[in-house]
Design a protein that fits this description.
The complex is a heterodimer of chains A (336) and B (325). Chain A has 336 residues and is of the alpha/beta class. Chain A contains 11 helices and 11 strands. The chains are: A alpha/beta (336), B mainly alpha (325).
Amino acid sequence: MENVLDVQNLSIEFPTETGVVRAVKNVSFQIKKGESLGIVGESGSGKSTVAFGLFNSVPDPGRISSGSVRFLDGRNFLKVNTEERRRFYWEHISMVFQASQNTLNPLLRIRRQVDDIAEAHQFNKKKLRQKAQSLFEMMYLDTDRVMNAYPHELSGGMKQRVSIGLALLLDPEIVVLDEPTTALDVISQGSVLKILNGIRKELNISLLFITHDISVISEVVDSVMVMYAGQVIERGPVNQVMSSPTHPYTLGLIRSIPPLVGDVKNTKGISGSAVQLDLLPKGCPFYSRCDMRMTKCSEIPPPWVTLDNNVSVACHLAKNEGGDKNDRTQEHFKTI
Amino acid sequence: MKWINRIIMAILTVFVVASLTFFLVRLMPGSPVQVMYLELIQKGIPANQAMNQVNIILNVIPNEPLFQQYIHWLGQIIHGDMGQSIQQTGVPVIRLIFNALPWTLITVAIGLLISFFIGVLLGVLSAFVRERWTSSLIDNIGSVAHAIPQFVTAVALLYIFSVLVHWFPSSGAYSIEVFPGFNGPFIMSFLYHMALPVFTYVLTGFGAWTLQMKASTVSVLKEDFMMAARLRGLKQNTIMGYLGSNSILPLFTGLMLSLGAMFGGSVFIEGTYAFPGIGNLLATAINTRDYPVMQGCFILTTATIIFANLIADFAYTKLDPRITD
């Protein structure tokens, strides 16, 4: 199947007073039609920056220093001029933002904001309103009320669903969801995830799901990519990564999920805090916090290793100790 | 219903303020009787004859208790009568105010609108180029213009444009050669005379708008819905519309209050340019302790500010959907 999105060696840097910080380093990934990919990592790992990189719209003063982003049409999107870029947005790639509650203009009714999208992309306003209504209906919203409401008249969960509806309005090939459920309570989280899963299957849309909560995405994505300090450290099919994580960081992330029932004493956080991006060691970025570090880890960058189960990982341990760690996770899951 | 209550409250507020000013102006040292009495004494008229003459000229009851004066005033004001000027004996206060009001209204309105327009433009510009030297230049010009008092700016402009280069007249609202009315020469002369006062209003006014507009625009630019609007591929002018409507909204109350305050004019600016507006009328009334005129001016300014506030509150509910009445 053809790739809807092909990102090669994307690097994004932020100039600061103390020097240039590379927030995203050589990130490459592909998404096929209808496939959905999750990007997981803690705060500051560069997940959202990757998302804005796809739009070639990194917040100031950041800049994309290298790499290419190609959608279905095969052009490098980073080289496309502003007007073409504007037309490309939302028709081919759309986004559900981290704080979706605040992404609607507070002074305009929802229908006006739908009209604005129609006008910008030269769609028939009436048809697009009908489309929006059917999308809102899919998301169990009272369509007439929502269309005539101002954003402040809707609840957080409703606004979130409105944002998702708006993201699907122009039938994009790919939707980026940046922490779409983080600001919601557990019940709304559940319903939003269910809606997303349904829509994905029904409309055959590719999703790029960005989250810090690895437990959230396992049921929504096909494959997962774990980021640490701006680099991808592990990627593979989601069930493989979840059941037998190879990288110590991924293992730590999974172990930090509190169990649904029983004691939380088996839940373990990752020691230390996220590294400062300008103080990275020469070798593995996770070196300072890793329980299983070896001397060579601080000096030699770990090579990419592809394992039998289609998981690729950047860790010196990957070849020889993979099986051992596997057992440890199994133990953890038993306790959950 | 709620608005009817608000209007009644506003009228009551005006009444209370008017009553307070009634007593306050009479607490000032000196009185119109004293002013005139001393004048007559200086002309060599004997003391008790002078007192009689003052009472006849001013048509007041000598040494009437303050409270009775107040009751008397209440009776007048309920009939909409603001009394008569003491110094320009017999001329109704209303007429003095209506003679002065048009000059003030036109100059202040023009000055206010120009300074609001310039301020908003500069504020948006400064917000867009923030963190560059142009932005801090605009901000500093705004702060300085706002910080220099009106009478300093007025005197400086008067000195430069009227004394040094003789570009503009130094006083009055129109030339004595034209006949007031709706005719070309008069309007041209009026525009020519009001140039300096308007310029002073603009110079002292735009700074505050600039700073407010910049702060407001910067915070709206950081809003998530602006980023969202861009990534939705909305047209540039739609996005600018989002930015403009959201960032100008907080300035609206300020503008309405300034529009209310414009009925008072500026004592300093009108005084400096000898401009026959409300500010000048008030200043003269204070100097000669002309109580009815002072009170008339105070009631006018209080009422307009309170009602401008009321209108601003009402208009807000129409402009911002988040605010309901």
